[in-house]
Amino acid sequence: MFVFKKEQITFDFGNVSIGGNPGEHPTVLIGGLFFRDQPIVLNAKEGEFDSALTKEWIDVGTSMVEKTGHPLIIEVYGRTAKAMEQHLLWLVENFDGPFMFESTNTAARMRGIEFCDEAGLSDRAIYNSINLSTKPEELELLKNSSLNMAVALGWSPKATSLQERMEVITKTVETAKETGIEKMVVDPATMPIGAGYGLDLRTVLAIKSELGLPTCLGPDNAPSAWKFIKQPGFDDETTHLTTIVASTVVAQIMATDCIMYGSMANTKEVFTSVALVGNAIAAASAEANRALGIDRPFFEPKTFE
């Protein structure tokens, strides 16, 4: 079990604690809504969706938080500026916890910043993400807003070693601070299998060892293009779900503080698996700290013995 010599920083994201040494706080799970391939999406450009099914997914999420003690953050995707506003407007009326927002579209991300600023949501809104390709006008808008929480994405196509990845992360963290971000999680980016998957896990340990900052991963990216599960006999929902669960708990074991597990359709299975591993981490961390003579509080998971 990992016990870091570097002092570990914990930030409060809308009453959810992220960071610290393994076992100190429960692993935070981040479920995604409104991605194109989800059955809730009716019109991605217009931001139209099945609100009844989406609410069902959220209700499952809040129920699993109560059952396991592992917090939930919801990640909102908006394909366009209009969709982003529609999605955020509905979410904040149907979910009380912290949320992230992201898009591959600059205008959508900027509208997300504006909406959250105008609506006074700075205590709940987490911008995803600041990275080396974030445009100056977007950074300026973020800097001039009331938002102060973000994901620092430490990835570059040229960073293929741990040292190179850490250099990118250092630059990204500095940019985030210059932009007025006071609370951040650092995401070294999970690549698909065969394209660099594994370096992200090694980098998480380096981030916590060298910087002490809270870490984040999206391990559902790892099996996204894996040809193994595209084969006949393996290309089915159950087999695909096992890879999501496996990649999530591996990230959890490797000291990742918060984990983007992909679609909220998989909430029950992911939370259950993380709750099981959370019990192991709690026991192992407690024993390790006793052996080292370290006295610190720990998350006490529900065992359901």
Tell me the series of helices and strands, N- to C-terminal.
EEEEEHEHEHEHEHEHEHEH
Structural class call reads alpha/beta
How much of the polypeptide forms β-strand, as a percent range? 15-25%
Count of domains: 1
CATH-derived topology: TIM Barrel
Say which CATH homologous superfamily is assigned: Dihydropteroate synthase-like
Q: Figure out the total of helices.
A: 8
CATH class: Alpha Beta
Mean pLDDT: 96
Sheet with the most strands? 8 strands, parallel
Instruction: Report the strand count.
Output: 12
Query: Architecture in CATH?
Result: Alpha-Beta Barrel
What is the general shape?
Answer: globular
Instruction: Note the gap between the termini.
Output: 23 Å
The whole-angstrom Rg is 19 Å
Q: Helical content, roughly?
A: 40-55%
SSE map:
Layout: E1 10-13, E2 16-19, E3 28-33, E4 41-43, E5 48-49, H1 51-68, E6 72-77, H2 81-94, E7 99-102, H3 106-118, E8 125-130, H4 136-143, E9 149-153, H5 162-178, E10 183-187, H6 199-210, E11 216-217, H7 237-253, E12 258-263, H8 267-292
Parallel strand pairs: 3-6, 3-12, 6-7, 7-8, 8-9, 9-10, 11-12
Antiparallel strand pairs: 1-2, 4-5
Helix pairs in contact: 1-8, 2-3, 5-6, 7-8
